[in-house]
Amino acid sequence: MAQIAHNPDARPDYKSTLDLGAVLPQTAEVKGGHLWIGGVDTVTLAREFGTALYVMDEEHIRTQLRNYLEWTRYHWKDVDVVYAGKAFISIAMCKLVEEEGCYLDVSSGGELAVAQAAGFPASRILAHGNNKTLRELVEAIDAGVGRIVVDSLEELARINGLALERGLRQPILIRVTPGVVADTHQYIQTGSEDSKFGFGLRDGLALAAIQEALALPGVELKGLHMHIGSQIFALHSYAKAIEVIVHFMDEIREKTGFTVSELDTGGGLGIAYGVPDEPSTIKEFGKVIVDDIKEHCEQHALPVPRILVEPGRSIVANAGVSLYIVGTIKAIPNIRTYVAVDGGMTDNIRPALYGAHYEPIIANKADQPRDTVVTIAGKHCESGDVLVVDTPLQAAEVGDTLCIFATGAYCQTMSSNYNKQVRPGVVFVRDGRARLVVRRESYDDLLRCEVSECL
Ligand code: LLP
Prior knowledge:
The chain has helices at residues 42-49, 58-73, 91-99, 109-117, 134-143, 153-165, 205-215, 236-256, 282-299, 313-316, 350-354, 443-447, and strands at 29-31, 34-37, 40-41, 53-57, 79-84, 103-106, 125-127, 147-150, 170-177, 199-200, 219-225, 262-264, 306-309, 320-332, 336-341, 360-362, 372-377, 386-393, 401-405, 425-430, 433-438. Strands 4, 14, 15, 16, 17, 18, 19, 20 and 21 form a 9-stranded mixed sheet that branches. An 8-stranded parallel beta barrel has the order 5-6-7-8-9-11-12-13, surrounded by 5 helices. A 3-stranded antiparallel sheet has the order 1-2-3. The protein folds into 2 domains: 17-56 and 320-447, Lyase, Ornithine Decarboxylase, Chain A, domain 1 (Beta Barrel); 59-316, Alanine racemase (TIM Barrel, Alpha-Beta Barrel), CATH 3.20.20.10. Helix 2 packs parallel to helix 9 (282-299), helix 5 (134-143) packs across helix 6 (153-165) and helix 8 (236-256) runs parallel beside helix 9 (282-299). The chain is 28% helix and 24% strand. The protein is of the alpha/beta class. The chain contains 12 helices and 21 strands. Ligand LLP binds next to helix 10.
């Protein structure tokens, strides 16, 4: 973003904080003019733990996981919910996922290491990645992960070899790209034919992978995986992909005699970043996924498989907020006013990367109307380091606590040390209690990997 275009349509928004509705954490309240989450005053949290700071509503996360379990199992007994750790992972998060009886998707050796540090049961872990390194495969197999989701023929051969060396058979799913273009940002579409992920159905690529897997003694093929993209609002993309994949399950049975006993339909359900966003609900998602699988299986006289769903964003995004302190306010006449905070693209790359939209408020003026229009700038050495362009906000003053909503997914996990910025801490709040689950980095952390002998 070389220049940020002036938006003449930007208008103040006289609505109150609580009118932000589904954008907010479920336990958000306004008390004494302050924003409270999980029964804790966010203004106090910012002071106590330092800013920038991620705050996550634990009850919200648990409710979302329970909603997925409830509304998928409502339609079919054999469903498991696999939380996608790439959205947000930490030891505390893994423990919470385990306590709620869910599974965990890890997409790297590093995520697996966090899960192991949390003591997460390996049998409930699915290992993902389009180019898992040999080391990551060894780690996953030695950890005893429940499933490896296979993404290429090379990987299939490597898993087979490693498993045979260890005298075991590794359970796997084969990732298939159903050729469906989901209605979302191009960068986060994954199910189309031109994709680095999985095996396409055209030209028999996926079928060849299935045949290969069935012939290898070191792998135990359980079924298929698909993931069509992320931040998806319209469920018809899922319906289409399910139709295609169940048809493929029929073809597999016909051509190989193998019956798919597990189908993982991936994640991707969208969330509300702003008031106009109207994502489908978990209840609607559960119905479409499960009913469509059942219906198509019936049509093809296939047994209904065990179903896995793999949500990430819709579990944690709205649970989380980012807190900052306003450091400077720069009014450029007839152009815009920049309100600069003590964080930015290092703790939330999504506006710069995807043009993502966020809703900010001033947490210590949460009961006041958002009757000015400003641009929230980060503190980094890039003009594109802007968190929200031309947004309604309460009248800002230096020292205010600024809160940006819906930052619980893909912000902390995509954070960086650009400009040698230390990464923020993460605090979980619940029932009036705050607990630090990831501490803020220090300068020592920044220097930890420096090799001093080079001096
Ligand atoms: N399963 C697989 C195999 C995935 O690749 C993903 C996300 C998920 C599940 C979870 O999808 P979700 O429910 O969170 O949409 N950094 C981007 C999102 C990338 C998503 C990558 N895969 C963003 O910030 O929007």
